[in-house]
Amino acid sequence: MPEVSIIVPVYNVEKYLRECIDSILNQTYQDFELILIDDGSKDKSGEICDEYAKIYNNITVVHQKNQGQAAARNNGVKISKAYWIMFVDSDDVIHPDLLQFLYKAATETDSGMAVTERVKAKTIPVDFFRQYIFKCKVEKTIPKKLEEFYDNSQFYYWAPFPSIIKKSVVQRVPFPEGRIYEDNAIGCQLLYYANSLAVVPYCMYYYRENPFGTMNQPLTEKKLDYLWAIEEQIKFYKELHYEKMCKKITSELLGSTLYYYNQCEKENNKELGAIVKKKLARFLSQYKKNIKDTDKSIERKIDKILKPRIYRIKKILKIY
Known about the structure:
With 320 residues, the chain is an alpha/beta fold. 48% of the residues lie in helices and 18% in strands. It has 13 helices and nine strands. Strand 1, helix 1 and strand 2 form a beta-alpha-beta unit.
C-alpha cells in the first residue's frame, strides 16, 4: 500500500500535462500512487494519461464525463489507497523534494496536514529547483489560529494547497461539486479538522498563471460562486459558535457583493446587476446582526444601492 495518493484532475491540458506528470514521477520520495482523473478532455490529454499508465505501475487513469474539478478530486479520493492525500493541478509543476518535505513534516510533527508555499507565474522561476534544507513549524488549527491566518491573508486559509492531508480529513470535508471557488468554501474546514498544520517555508509548487482561465474572464453569474463560498465560511463559524469570525466573514461577504455590483455597473450588465442586488438584500437581511459597529461605510454603500431615498435623507440629516 502506498503512503501517499497524488490526485490530478485533468481537463484539456495536453500542452502542460507531460511536464506536470514528469515532475511528480521525479519526486525524491517515491512511495506514492498517482491517480489521473481525465475529466472528459476533448484534446489528447486522456491519451497522454494512458500512455504514462502503460509505462508506470503506480499510475491509475480514470476517464469520466466532464463533471468539474471538484467531482474529479472527490472521485480520485474514493479510489485512493493511501493514508495521505495530495492534490496537484494538471498544468502545474512541483519541486523534486516537495513530497518528501511534506511527508516528513506531517509525520514527524503528528500533524493532520502539511503545506509548502507556492509561486504563481507565467513561466517557472529560474531558481525554482534550488536545493533546500528541510525545516518546518507547526500551528494548532484552533479557531483563533484560523482567524490569524485570515487576518494575515495566508494563502492556505483560502486554499490549503499544495499540501498533503490525512485522507480521513478530506473524506470528512469533500469538495462541493458543480461550483467554482470550492477551495475557498472548505479551506478553513480542512485546516480545522486537521487539528494541526506543519508549514514548510519554501516555494516548492509552481502554479501556472493562465490568462485565459475562469478567474481572468469578464464577470459572469458563475463567478458569483465566490459569494457562496464566503457564505459557507459564515455557516462553518456559526457552527463553531465563533462570533468574532462570523462578523469578519460577514464583512467580507458584503464587501465582495458590493464589489461585484460595482463591476456590473462598470460593465453595464443590468441583468447580472439585478441578481447581485437581490443577493445583497438577502445577505443584509440574514446577516445584519453580524455587521460590526465599525462597518458604517459598508452600511452606507448598501443603503445607497438598496434604499437610495433613505440614503439621501440620512446623508442630509447626517445620521451616519
